[in-house]
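re the bet — no i am not wrong, look at it urself. input seq straight from the record:
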Amino acid sequence: MSAYEALASCYDSFTKDVQYERRARYLSRLLAVPEGKQCMILDLACGTGTLTELFARAGHRMVGVDLSADMLAVAMNKVADLPADERPLLLQQSMTALHLPFTVDAAFCALDSLNYLLRPEEVRRTFRAVAKALTPGGRFVFDVHSPEHLAALDGQVFLDETEDAYCVWRSEYAPRTQILSYAMDIFRLGRDGRWQRSFEEHRERAYSAEELTQWLRDAGFTDVCVYGEFTKKAPRDGEERLYFSARKG
């Protein structure tokens, strides 16, 4: 089963601790979005569209892009009650093949989505595609899991549980490839009262701050800054998530 095909329907239930509202405010700060101004903003790898929705309800014109049709279906239901002219444009595309028919004022890629790109060239292509989609001076913000955090997850087992869904996932890190693999067993309660089991495998690759900074510059970005989570300060030792902010030159 492809990644997120089974997880999409219960993803929001399993991520209630993500602090989406706080994260949206933080992203707005890093994007330097002027208060009260309507901007066109790209949410790259938007998933079920929670951040897309929050930005749209704050008055911005949103474009949500994701590879998973199942995740986009959840996102579409989430914004269905918005007026037609305020509803985000949702597109099924991969990050590496991003192509918009217009430019955007700002772009973000949240919740370690870039770690899902397993080859350096895929990251570089994504950075070039985002630069092409941005207006001059537009900012691009994204976060990744730090290499230390991904390595520390090796051998860990995690459980997520709600009334009608249960997920157990096991992680294994390969130092040679710098890839962390998640094996996920997902159990969902069907309408017939029976539990249905699905299996998905997710993989994330570790990238250093130095690599990502250089690739951003190669793609034409300037003013590259790296922050710890929810701060505008340099990451601390042992930081789990790194945030990057860059401006299209």
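see?? Helices lie at 11-14, 20-31, 50-57, 69-78, 120-133, 147-152, 209-218. told u. also The chain has seven helices and eleven strands. so pay up
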